[in-house]
Amino acid sequence: MNATGLRRDEHMERLKLFGLSSPALMLVMVILVIPVGWLFYVSFIGADGSFSLENYERMITRKSYGRIFWTTFEVSLLTTGICILIGYPLAYFMSQLPPRLANLCLIAVLLPFWTSLLVRTYAWLVLLQKNGLVNNWAISLGLWDEPIKIVHNLNGTLIGMVHIMLPFLILPAYGAMRAIDRDYIKAAANLGASPRRAFWTVFFPLSTPGLFAGALMVFVLCLGFFVTPAVLGGGKVIMVSMKIVSNIELFVNWGAASALGVVLLVLTAGVLWIASRFVNLERATGGGGH
What we know:
By secondary structure, this protein is mainly alpha-helical.
């Protein structure tokens, strides 16, 4: 077969592949590209219906918007940090268990997904309120003398968000740890490394891609969180998603809400881009056992 025939066959194969993938491409276009494009378009529409930058100018001139974005990133960072402190040791403990016990622990980690997010949030509201179970038990145990305010503030918001986000960190970290070849640890021990040194010089570096993937997932999800901070924050912890809802429900200002959504989307993309400069995201999301 000559070169012309090969090029023709290659062209036909590409057309067939495009035809097979066209339904998926159309689906992505309908559910992703068009809505995001509409979001960008509406964000540039002013109150009089004409093209304007007033929605973005408002975010620059009003300090309240800066505080909202600061609160959003603060809550997201704190939630991610607490999830790392709790989730990494738990994932390490699970990775050291026999497969049967590890699977049972994994089921326990996945149990919260079987309950509605709203139900879990209101359950924490019942537990943490002034006359809730946590205050009553703490007083009966003598931890403090009178009920303290654990909900409708930053503390209650963090407790609820950590509970909801913790599985998203444990699962990729546990997957990366399970993929680590235990012969590496044995080799480190044979070379004279203590268990602690073997952990920090061998095990921990190999598990960091899974830990980083989980932390990044938790952080990005927290940026757009709405239900938990709205319920447990009591209106005192205002995040970007809550401001978007108020712009639509209270002020019926789709332009301002869309501009907030665009800025949050750009900031999230920026976080992912910065993360990609330090860590290979493809390797992180694929595990770190090799």
